Amino acid sequence: MTMVGRDGEQARLAAFVTAADARALVLRGESGVGKSALLDHAAELAAREGHLVIRATGVEAESELPCAGLHQLLYPLLPDATRLEPPARAVFDAVFGRPEGAPPSVMTLGIAVLGLLSLAASRRPLLLVLDDGQWLDDPSAAVCAFVGRRLAGSPVRLLAAVRADIASRWDAAALPEAPVGALPEDDAARLLDLRHPGLPPRLRRLVLAEAQGNPLALLELPVEIGDRSGDPAAPEEVFGRPGLPLSRRLQHLYGARIAGLGDGVRAELLKGALDGVGTRPGDTAAGAARYRMRDAEEAVARGLLVVEPVGGDLAFRHPLVRSSVVQMSTPNQRRAAHHTLARVHRAHLERRAAHLAAATVDPDEEVAAVLEAAAESATRRGGALAAVAWLTRAAELSETHAERSRRLADAAFVAGHAARLGQARRLVSADPAPGADDSPASVLAAGYLALYQHGEVRSALRQITAAIERLHDGGPRGHDEVLGRLVTLLLAVSQYAADRAVWERTRQLLASLGDLADERSRLYGDTWSDVVRHGAGWSGPVERAAAHLRDREPWDVSRLGVSAYHLDVLGLFRPHLEQVAARELETGAASSGMIMLHLIMLDQTAAGEWDAAERTGGRALALAAEHGHELFAQQTRGYLAQLAALRGQVDRADALRAEVDAWARPRGVGFLTQLADSAGATAALSAGDYEAAYAYATGITPAGAFRPYVYQASRTLLDLVEAALHTGRVEQARAHALAARDARLADLSPRLALLTHGALAMTADDMTEAAEMFERAESHPAGARFPFELARIRLAHGVRVRHARDAGAARRPLARAAEEFERLGATAWAERARLALRAAGAPSGAPAHPSAPLTWQELRIADLAAGGLTNKEIGRRMGLSPRTVSAHLYRVFPKLGITSRAALRDALNRMGELPGSPPRVDSGRQAIRHADGGAR
């Protein structure tokens, strides 16, 4: 079979087999690293070249028998010994059969062996292949080394493999050596995927970490896992048993040496192994240093431990040593070691909990409480999988049925957020309490499964509503936390239903709970349902919450992020979301992590980072498919459809939109059908099909109104207005813009303020009003955060001014719109802006700023600096750091041919005077007066 990652070693062996001056070569490497496979390769290559190949393998059981290894190696050639001279024949008789007198010396025996090899090689070249050379008895090893040093120029070659972790006579043989190391990370992953395709990602990572590039471990560890490969086992710190189960062959690599240690040394190694001491110094977890093994020099001498040069700490030579130590211990030995380690780590909650969980057998409420606290700590640092294991163990150690049920419910809740929906159901089923099948925890688990995997909003709504009513109307007291979880899930399901009747029923139920519904529930209910009617006043609390996200659990962060999206302040959350999303998807709340990816993608799309948004969407789609979250998969496709529509990729947008709509509409998932319609409207606008765009937009909400509990109603404000204007529906466009004004959308979010001002400007009959509204939109502090919307408004502004017969004033907003569309990759919109720019008198194909190719951001910064603003003030207005502003100005000066800030104003004015060039950018009222004056 083709070897992976051994090209260099194979090339050296090929040269060794074919080179005329080759004599001997020793392959040296750790146990299981693949030396035998390389010997096989060399033997096969030599056989093809016409060599006689003789193979032997050192046997540990024969390592004390003098010349046993040499007998095995030479046995096929001994019949030829009869052709040797009598003295040489006598040497072989003395060693291998008829001893007479004292045994021959190494030199005498070596010379006789050389003669026998030369005789055998006289007919064809000879390759001697010796595996496990470290087990050769001393006389055999000495003779092989003697012979190997004297083979130069002969047709005989000696190839041996020895283990680097066992001392032997080969260490001083003075023969050429070739090191065989562990496989590099990429090659190790390739070998694992080749031999064990389809291994679940988490177990794949565990195998790679445990094997550390050892090919034998890569091949055999997955076999030992067997059908447990789908078991969502917790990380090793939780169970206190590091590593994966070892096969007999893997355990044999180190088992004999471990078994030969004294009891005290084995106990010391066991404590180190159970505490997760790795193969590098300074190994830490959860802020606590690992156990420091002592008085284990015997293990160092046996090649099981190494002494680190810095600090002198003892570390395992390989993770397989650590796993072997644990696997060869008894349950009582492990529990005793865990008790000791729990005392060692008494000041570190999670480390102590890990050892107490493994050390305790009988119910113990004190230990269960420690595990519960550790689960909460782990959840906040991205360890939801560990938290599920700890809570499950805490339930097992609970002293009362009530505490057991509560902790199992908590474990199921966390498992649901960790995308372990099946495990959540199993945890609920494990509760022996009466009525557990219909308990709130069971309803939660079933609700997550119905929503995320199947998008079944109707059945989930019925079950959750009934459970809340039972708890509120006479259910057991003390279930406030469970009630809060049910309410939050009800709000999530209602959001996906996006139906007026559903939301009104949900809000009535929420109101009936009174003080039992906390502020977070009210926040989610108002922002997730209908920001037009209920979103006022929530921006402040959400913005303040953004400063304290580190103290919140991952599901709270993602829920607040959804509120921030509806209020268009998602940019405040994005740095934290980007920081924790990868962590949560690895070992934490994966469902929350996937929601975080959606939020990151939405903010990237809004900010004009479309390539990054595409990559984020691709990752989110792959993860949703991996975890079986069909709802999230379709939601991701909806966002990708919207992105494709913005870019003018109409066919792709339509295909994705149709797939989402076909899945969501029969299930009543209005959130996704609205998203599909919004993507359809944007795609139609990109294609210039304004009738279709109007049909899609008014399918979401009628002109002049914002349909209750339709979250896309306000988000598609500009789409409906623009489609109406282009199809001659001027009254409907104006009615919709006035409806936005009357609903005070500008007070709800910065994006809605931008859209409202733009819509009013585009539909105003009075040029003064239009100029004022365009100024408000284009100078809005949040404009840079929504570049596509701002460019659309500038395009409309330029077209409006051009129609008013002021071509010079029109070129400025048109040029800026064209430049921004080109930067974004909105090809259809960019072409539209270029056509309008040419119609305004700009030369065909002329760049936006022919005399100085400044980007929009550079031009904006230069203009603000020319107006006297400091770098700090510019940064605050544009959402940049002062250092970034300074860097932009550093690039602007040479482009404008100036060397100082004082020369900016004149340089920008000169740009506006060039034929066909737009006047300089002006963020104040001067630009609006220019446009307004030109119109009059």
UniProtKB/TrEMBL annotation:
SMART domains: HTH_LUXR. This is LuxR family transcriptional regulator. Residues 847-912 form the HTH luxR-type domain. It comes from Streptomyces similanensis. The keyword ATP-binding applies. Keywords: ATP-binding, Nucleotide-binding. InterPro entries: AAA_16, P-loop_NTPase, Sig_transdc_resp-reg_C-effctor, Tscrpt_reg_LuxR_C, WH-like_DNA-bd_sf. CDD domains: LuxR_C_like (cd06170). PANTHER family: TESTICULAR SOLUBLE ADENYLYL CYCLASE, TRANSCRIPTIONAL ACTIVATOR DOMAIN. Residues 910-936 are annotated as: Disordered.
